[in-house]
Amino acid sequence: MTHQRVPTFAPLSGGFGLETRDVDVARLDDATFAEVERAFYRGQVLALRGQTLAPHEFAAFARRFGPPEPHVIDQFHHPEDANILILSNRRRDGQPVGLADAGTYFHTDYSYLQVPARATTLYSVEVPRRGGDTLFANQYAAYDDLPDATKRRIDGLVGIHHYGNRNDTDTASRRVASVLSEDQQAKMPLVTHPLVRAHPVTGRKALYAVSGSSFGIVGMQEREARALLDELATHATQPKYVLRFRYGVGDVVIWDNASLLHSATLTDPQDPRTLWRITVKEPALAGAVIAPRFAGAAM
């Protein structure tokens, strides 16, 4: 590989997030990748601006962070690499070419799987004139700011997760979790993860997936559990914890699912937007399976 100069990283916000234009993702030597990886864990959100990538180059970059996991919505896998999920509101011959309106609520990727996501990376192919930003909520800061009594109450509690958005289960809504086929639903497990996780790399405690796929808490009645989860989600997504990221064409963005919630924002369906997405998982088991399949019945 061609050696690259040591990149400099600028803040995306006053709280968290970093960006650089000094990295060529397609020609990333080991020393430069080590700098990128350190910046990723330091910043939680890392933007590598102005890239020009083929599918195999994007996939090779993502693999350096962990093992990729193809998304369950397999009809929108990239034809050159099934690990790439196409996010797009474009249509061809009347049919969608990608997944539109994906994840338009605060959530954590793959928290509904036994081995959750370490990182998600997006490559911005086509940017709409307005909208299409991603919101990121810092779950380190949200946990740190909790009252001590609340920390004592929730440390050790275990959330119950399955695919979906607990605050919107209307399949006709643009904010529902992307609708699965019956076969895809049958692949989804029912799993548990701690409400508070020590980050597997940094060791810092963070609230984990308190919005999105968490539908209950082990050992707690549903009404009490939902009230606590909603209270934590409201706290964790306050504006003071949120970074709004706007994409440029060619941007690669990678974020840390263990320390963040994130939400897509809705766009005009007539205003074209296309991204490629790869999500990589933690290298070790992190949760417990309650049931190997969960087909979406209400809890």
Q: How far is the first residue's CA from the last residue's CA?
A: 52 Å
Low-confidence stretches at least 5 residues in length (pLDDT < 50)?
none
Q: Biggest β-sheet, characterized?
A: 8 strands, mixed
The spatial strand order of the largest sheet comes to 1-2-3-16-8-18-5-4
Rg, Cα atoms, Å: 19 Å
Order of helices and strands: EEHEHEEEEEEHHEHEEEEHEEEEE
Secondary structure tally, helices: 6
- Count of individual beta strands: 19
Please explain how this structure is put together:
It is a single chain. The termini are far apart. The chain is globular. It contains 6 helices and 19 strands. The strands form 5 sheets. An 8-stranded mixed beta sheet has the order 1-2-3-16-8-18-5-4, with helices on one face. A hairpin with a 2-residue loop joins strand 6 (91-92) and strand 7. By secondary structure, it is of the alpha+beta class.
